[in-house]
């Protein structure tokens, strides 16, 4: 029995989500192989070979794999799938794009967003926005799985010495093409990897208040910035800040929720945070039910006071 982990990378480095997926694969058992599909991604393949617990790296390199287009990556995975009992990817945008196609073409179910491994054929996954957990057993010969990265501690990125095998890059299906990418650049930590996150909600009233009120707090804490769906939908901040069921799933050491009521959709994306601090003027707000520390009051007075205290 061997498990194939589909790596998240930027053609140069391996992203942390891959380390979480490898941790899940270790709980399944058996040999762990990592697929690095990209273009001029030799550095990423070498980095994957250093991951603790990985026994082999499969490196597929071709121009049509440069942007991880789902149709091309799916074809590549299907070509080697018969060698594996489990196909695993992080439940990121790429994983959610590729793995359902793989499962459909293999005519098996996908087991999505697993948060625990009970046995090689039995997994736990959240349902109903994380308010319940389902234990799913699969009899499929090949199990196609996406992993909730926040549920598994990342394995070490170094210490391994896996062999790197070059494999054919597969066919360019020419079903889609990469047109362009608009990337927001920030000196702050990446939201899904940050140890501290400061998030704002509808209570911030407008985007300018995110800059005037929340950014000083985030600067003092060295935190990433996040937001609720209500704040994103209102146009206060970019949609890549969104935390929640339809946004990003995070589990930092500290999550500060400011002006966020705590709708189920938002809680599903952050309630696994180690420490949650909520600031809201409504003492009945659902966010206080999951918060470790809560402050009831006007955020426009409280947040500046907290920043002043941090300066001391």
Write the layout of secondary structure elements.
Elements: E1 2-6, H1 16-28, E2 31-38, H2 42-49, E3 56-61, H3 70-80, E4 86-90, H4 93-106, E5 110-114, E6 116-119, E7 122-127, E8 132-137, E9 143-147, E10 163-167, E11 196-200, H5 207-221, E12 224-227, H6 229-233, E13 254-258, H7 264-270, E14 275-280, H8 287-290, E15 293-296, H9 299-311
Parallel strand pairs: 1-2, 1-4, 2-3, 3-10, 4-9, 5-9, 11-12, 11-13, 13-14, 14-15
Antiparallel strand pairs: 6-7, 7-8
Helix pairs in contact: 3-4, 5-9
What would you note in describing this structure?
It is a single chain. This protein is α/β, with parallel strands linked by helices and 312 residues long. It is 29% helix and 25% strand. The protein contains 9 helices and 15 strands. It folds into 2 domains: 166 residues, Rossmann fold; 121 residues, Rossmann fold, CATH 3.40.50.
Task: Give a nutshell description of this structure.
The protein is α/β, with parallel strands linked by helices and 312 residues long.
| DSSP summary: helix tally | 9
Strand order of the largest sheet: 5-9-4-1-2-3-10
Q: What is the element string, with H for helices and E for strands?
A: EHEHEHEHEEEEEEEHEHEHEHEH
Number of strands: 15
CATH topology of the largest domain: Rossmann fold
Pairing-aware structural class of the strands and helices? Answer: alpha/beta
Please describe the biggest sheet, giving its number of strands, its sense, and whether it closes into a barrel.
Answer: 7 strands, parallel
The total domain count is: 2
Can you give the mean pLDDT? 94
Q: What percent of residues are in strands?
A: 25-35%
> How helix-rich are the residues, as a percent range?
25-40%
Alpha carbon gap, first and last residue: 57 Å
CATH class of the largest domain: Alpha Beta
Q: What is the global morphology? A: elongated
CATH architecture of the largest domain: 3-Layer(aba) Sandwich
CATH homologous superfamily of the largest domain - what is it?
A: HUPs
Our Rg estimate from Cα atoms comes to 21 Å
Low-confidence residue ranges: none
């Amino acid at each position: 029995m061997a498990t194939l982990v589909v790596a998240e990378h930027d053609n140069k480095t391996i992203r942390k989500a891959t380390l979480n997926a490898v941790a899940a694969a270790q709980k399944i058992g058996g040999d762990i192989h990592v697929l690095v599909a990209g273009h001029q991604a030799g550095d990423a393949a070498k980095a994957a070979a250093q991951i603790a617990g990985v026994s082999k790296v499969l490196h597929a390199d071709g121009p049509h794999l440069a942007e991880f287009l789902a149709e091309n990556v799916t074809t590549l995975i299907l070509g080697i799938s018969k060698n594996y009992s489990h196909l695993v990817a992080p439940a990121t945008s790429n994983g959610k794009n590729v793995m359902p196609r793989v499962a459909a073409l293999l005519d098996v179910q996908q087991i999505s967003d697993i948060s625990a491994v009970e046995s090689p054929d039995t997994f736990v996954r959240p349902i109903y926005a994380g308010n319940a957990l389902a234990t799913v057993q699969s009899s499929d010969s090949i199990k196609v799985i996406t992993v909730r990265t926040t549920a598994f501690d990342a394995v070490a990125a170094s210490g391994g010495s896996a062999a790197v095998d070059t494999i054919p890059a597969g066919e360019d299906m020419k079903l889609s093409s990469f047109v362009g990418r608009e990337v927001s650049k920030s000196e702050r930590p990446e939201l899904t990897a940050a140890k501290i996150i400061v998030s704002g909600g509808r209570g911030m009233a407008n985007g300018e208040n995110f800059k005037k009120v929340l950014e000083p707090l985030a600067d003092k804490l060295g935190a990433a910035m996040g937001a609720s769906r209500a704040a994103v939908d209102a146009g206060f901040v970019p949609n890549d800040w969104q935390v929640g069921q339809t946004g990003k799933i995070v589990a930092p050491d500290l999550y500060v929720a400011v002006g966020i009521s705590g709708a189920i959709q938002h809680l599903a994306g952050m309630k696994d945070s180690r420490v949650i601090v909520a600031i809201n003027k409504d003492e009945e707000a659902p966010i206080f039910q999951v918060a470790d520390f809560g402050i009831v009051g006007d955020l426009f007075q409280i947040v500046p006071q907290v920043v002043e205290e941090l300066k001391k």
